[in-house]
Amino acid sequence: MAKNSDIHDPWLLQPRPLYGSLEAGDYAALGLKSGLEIHQQLLTERKLFCRCPAGLYTTDHDVEILRHMRPTLSEMGEYDGTALMEFKTRKEIIYQLNDDSVCTYEMDDAPPFELNRQALDQATAIAMLLGCKIVGEIHITRKQYLDGSIPTGFQRTTIVGVDGVIPFRDREVRIRQLALEEDSCREVSDVGHVRTYRTDRLGMPLIETVTEPDMRTPEEVAAVGQILRRLVRVTDHVRTGSGAARQDVNVSVTGGTRIEIKGVSSLRAIPRLVHNEALRQRSLVGIQGELKRRGVSAESIRDHSVDVTPIVRGTGCQYVQQAVSNGATVMAVPLPGFTGLLGVATQPRTRFLKEFSDRIRVVACIDDLPNLVCSTEETPSFSSGEWEKIGKACAVASEVPVLVVWGSARDAQTAALEITLRAREACLGVPSETRQALEDGTNGFERILPGPDRMYPDTDLPPIPLDDARVEQIACELPETPWQRQERLQQLGVGVDLAERLSRHPVYEFYLRLVARLDDNSRLQPGELASLLLDRPWPRPSRWNATEPWWEETVDRLARGEIIREGIYAGGKEPATAIDEVTGRRLFDGLLEDLPDGGPPLSQDGGRPREMFVMDHVMQKLRGKVRGRTVRKWVRETLKESQT
Q1: pLDDT at 571
Q2: Are 68 and 93 in contact (CB under 8 A)?
Q3: % the chain with pLDDT above 90
Q4: Which terminal residue of the chain has fewer beta carbons within 10 Å of its beta carbon, N or C?
Q5: What does the mean pLDDT of the chain come to?
Q6: Angle at 276 between CA 273 and CA 280, to 5 degrees
Q7: Any residues with CB less than 8 A from the CB of 130 and at least 6 apart, and which?
Q8: pLDDT at 368 > cutoff 70
Q9: Higher per-residue confidence, 627 vs 326
Q10: Which residue from 126, 379, 311 is spatially nearest to 237, judged by alpha carbons?
């Protein structure tokens, strides 16, 4: 590690602050900008371009197919950088197929069917709720994927709406576009050069909502994601549950570039991921500045790797010794000018050296960690004598960091080349990457960020005009947005917090039907009704229709003052049972059976002293469940009956 005087940027010398320790002004100073790409499965019966059932997940398979992916040229005669990177990995892709959920279309052995019109209508409705302008004609394009997640090597996708906007606090967030596309495979495993996928969700209709980078703090990104999540759910057009929705988060800072954090499954994870990526980019910008100050440029970093297998063949470093004994090749790559920089913190508990390790893990498929060691890092590896020999073999001074990697001859050569490429990228700043969200809130390299060369027109499907009459019909059937619902509830007199909860709850429409039964003389207020529905463990939303007659009767009785809210919970029983017992006197009559001794018998005169005695006894159990005047009425009726 270099001395403090060797590094001029103070940011590179301090630990990375944890999430929650920075204020909004700190993120503004970093120049943080962030946007979202939210993928949500649509609730359709069939897949997007075939007639296989959608949503039929399986854990077993009937057949396996092995494939190798190769890049194709774009219309402009260019290869996409991501495709070239994936090709370097030399992955064998295994697909697990179940006969009930996949057909020959998904395997690219049959042409696509006509686009699923149910999915198109649903996507159009959601685009309208986002305030998007609906396109006049649907054009299917192919988006190239060589990671194996789609067996054809491309995803069919189409833009449905553009230039939308949603309200967010005191401003608006712009929606760049909403696209309709087919979902990819589920990854089962990825070990070495073999990646395995399950194909059950492949081809399911999926919408991708892309925002502009209008969020300025990590918390804002999660808040906007929550708004978009609630918006699509009010339509009842989307699937819910694990894996049904996935977020990609785009992050950049001043001097950096757009980085896509892929496949974030939880909105709660977003703030920490955005925070840590902002810190990582700021650190990489600082490293770029230090390299420039030292006179290190991308052009000055040459391909220079040395086979040091003979030097370390008898090493005491156990993991390297074991690899060599299994036939591994050991390569050393010197990095002149990087003294002190490989140990710089990029994210919490993460150093710049991990950027090299990640590239080796992904591209060279050397995924057994540790997969490299560094001469200038204080981690157990080679002896000082072995490092001295490695440095001499590389013809560099002792203070120059040397990275050593090992694997098969081909993998080790690929790894050495990736180290050189990543060092050159460090001179240019922040490389454009797609990164993987990790459980601790940090992120790791996944692949090069795709460019426009991955897109090209699909020649199997013709353009689809969107009929004006159909678009107008969809517009007439749109539900209220969550913010429209909340405004409506507040106008009814529901409090802000309760209105926000009810606006996104499945019982919202049911509440409106019940609140319509209240009039100006009602003893039950709209806010009380909202609390009644949300704050008690009633039957699940799917049972609201089944219990509607009971609810209507209960609301009417509450409105007339015949019962009180607490009476619905009598004895901790189901609401219908409790109401029946209270209003039907069964609970009251049961208490008379346990009338204690010491008072006048029921057969005696039913005067006021006797009435008070019985009232004191039964109200110990009925207080807060039945109105006192109703209990008094029952007591008097009972005493009167006992005299006849």
Answers
A1: 47
A2: yes
A3: 71
A4: C
A5: 89
A6: 130
A7: 161, 164, 165, 166, 175, 178, 209, 231
A8: yes
A9: 326
A10: 126
Nearest Cα to Cα of residue 245 among 226, 217, 273, 221: 226
Buried b (16+ CB within 10 A) or exposed e, 49-74: bbebebbeebeebeeeeebebebeeb
Helix (H) or strand (E) holding 282: helix 270-293
- The two tokens of residue 554 are 């209960």
User: For residue 393, which amino acid is it?
Assistant: A
Is the CB of residue 499 less than 8 Å from the CB of residue 531? no
pLDDT at position 511 over 80:
yes
Spelled out in words, what is the top-level CATH class assigned to the domain 299-431?
A: alpha beta
- What is residue 547's predicted lDDT score, i.e. its pLDDT? 61
Determine the average pLDDT of the residues in 123-148: 95
* pLDDT over threshold 70, residue 403: yes
In the sheet with 306-307, reading across from the earlier edge strand, the strands are 306-307, 329-334, 402-407, 372-374
Domain segments of the chain as ranges: 31-258, 299-431, 482-643
Q: Is pLDDT of 574 > 70?
A: no
**The 3-state secondary structure of 164-199, one letter per residue:** EEEEECCEEEEEEEEEEEECCCEEEEEECCEEEEEC
Is residue 336 within 8 Å of residue 295, measured between CB atoms? no
Q: Would you say residue 1 has pLDDT above 60?
A: no
Number of H helices, E strands in the chain: 20, 23
Residue 297 backbone phi and psi in degrees, to 5? -125, 165
Residue 223 CB partners (closer than 8 Å, separation 6+): 168, 169
Q: Which of 87, 432, 30, 425 is nearest to 261 (CA)?
A: 432
Tokens of 1: 């590690």
Residue found by looking up tokens 């981690």 in the block: 379
| E strands present in 218-354 | 245-252, 259-264, 306-307, 329-334, 345-347, 350-351
Among 94-103, 134-143, 488-497, 613-622, whose mean pLDDT is lowest? 613-622
Q: Hey, what are 98's tokens?
A: 């179940």
Pair 449, 432: CB distance under 8 Å: yes
What is the b/e burial string over 461-473, where b = at least 16 CB atoms within 10 angstroms of the residue's CB?
Answer: beeeeeeeeebee
Task: Give the HSE-up count for residue 211: Cα atoms under 13 Å, Cβ half-sphere.
Answer: 33
Q: Tokens 């990375």 map to which residue?
A: 16
Q: What is the distance of C-alpha 330 from the center of its chain?
A: 40
Query: DSSP labels for 563-614?
Result: S-GGGGGGGG--HHHHHHHHHTTHHHHHHHTTPPTTS--TTS---HHHHHHH
C-beta neighbour count of 80 within 10 angstroms: 24
Q: The tokens of 64 are what?
A: 């396996």
How confident is the model at residue 3, as a pLDDT?
47
Exposed/middle/buried for residue 31 (C-beta within 10 Å: 0-12, 13-18, 19+): middle
> What pLDDT is attached to residue 180?
98
